[in-house]
Specification:
Elements lengths: L1 H27 L8 H7 L2 H11 L9 H11 L6 H10 L9 H11 L8 H10 L9 H11 L8 H11 L8 H11 L8 H13 L9 H10 L8 H38 L4 H33 L3 H27 L1
Length: 342
């Protein structure tokens, strides 16, 4: 099309030249007669040039670049070849619903707080449970346990442990250490009727009965001694009976001490196994209790041994037994004082 338009004026000029040449040769009688300057000038007239230019610069219908402008129109006009591209760009920058990035923006909406039910709903639900969201979060069990440890609602999973600790540190009456604290109370001067009442009564009878105290457990023995202090103690049949009675009393005292100390050690060991943090206070209390009963045993048996020596007229043996009793009281008293201060 373009080449045809360009060649059309040339063809027109050539046709004019041939026609004029033909006319001139007929006039001159020779077809091959040379063309004169005037002939050429007449042939290439103003009309011919104007006609040629009009063919080159004519209207839009015959425009030689109409094909090119048509292509450019398709590029810059509606229904252009890049409409697909612009549609994609429109979808990216917020075009109509259903754009190619709809799935991506849906995910982003779920992350930044979009419509409920986003793809991250499960994740945000878990995070909500961790940071204090709706009750019944996945960490409810854990926070319940922590509440029980740090002082939450009553009945926490550590209720038994805190009850034990409360009993150790001075909680409500009736704690699991009630028996032990009762024993300690009886040792250190608690309410009357403590577990050591019988033992302290015996000691009182020993240390005060001889000086005139009435009603002590050894009143009968001291009475017998008082009645026979003027006789032949070495060969008196009464002395043998006294020695036999003293041996029985010493055996009973030793057995009693063994039973009580075994009970104290068993209770202390059970508590320490359940609550390891209580090893220091419970161990010290148990040691103090067993030391007290051992002191009571050694004091009673030593005093009985001194009485037996006196009954046999063995003054040196009696003095040695009483010295041993005093030494026991001093040493064990010092040990007990260290345990209490510790």
């Amino acid at each position: 099309m373009l080449f045809k338009s360009l060649l059309s004026p040339i063809k027109s000029i050539t046709s004019s030249l041939v026609d004029s040449s033909t006319s001139t040769s007929h006039v001159g009688g020779s077809i091959l007669a040379p063309l004169s300057l005037s002939t050429i000038t007449n042939i290439v007239s103003t009309n011919t040039v104007t006609h040629t230019v009009n063919n080159l610069t004519g209207g839009a219908a015959n425009n030689p670049i109409s094909s090119i402008t048509s292509i450019l129109g398709n590029v810059t006009g509606s229904s252009s070849p890049i409409s697909t591209v612009t549609n994609i760009l429109g979808g990216v920058t917020g075009g109509a619903s259903g754009h190619p990035l709809g799935a991506v923006t849906g995910v982003i909406g779920g992350i930044t707080g979009g419509t409920e039910g986003g793809p991250l709903g499960s994740v945000t639900g878990i995070i909500g449970g961790i940071t204090g969201g709706t009750n019944g979060g996945p960490l409810g069990t854990v926070t319940g346990i922590i509440g029980g440890i740090t002082g939450g609602a009553e009945g926490g999973p550590l209720g038994a442990v805190t009850g034990i600790i409360g009993g150790i540190t001075g909680g409500a009456n009736g704690g699991p250490l009630g028996t032990v604290t009762g024993i300690i109370g009886g040792i250190t001067g608690g309410a009357e009727g403590g577990p050591l009442g019988a033992v302290t009564g015996i000691i009182g009878g020993i240390t005060g009965g001889i000086g005139g105290g009435e009603g002590g457990p050894l009143g009968a023995v001291t009475g017998i001694i008082g009645g026979i202090t003027g006789g032949d103690l070495g060969n008196n049949p009464v002395t043998g009976a006294i020695q036999t009675g003293i041996d029985v009393l010493q055996g009973v005292e030793s057995l009693k001490t063994q039973i009580i100390n075994t009970g104290i050690d068993t209770v202390a060991g059970t508590i320490i196994s359940a609550v390891h943090q209580s090893e220091h206070p419970i161990g010290d209390l148990a040691h103090l209790g067993t030391l007290t009963f051992e002191t009571s045993r050694d004091t009673v048996n030593g005093t009985l041994e001194a009485i037996s020596d006196l009954a046999g007229a063995d003054l040196g043996g009696a003095a040695g037994s009483l010295t041993g009793v005093v030494g026991t009281l001093i040493n064990n008293g010092s040990t007990a004082s260290g345990l209490v201060q510790h």
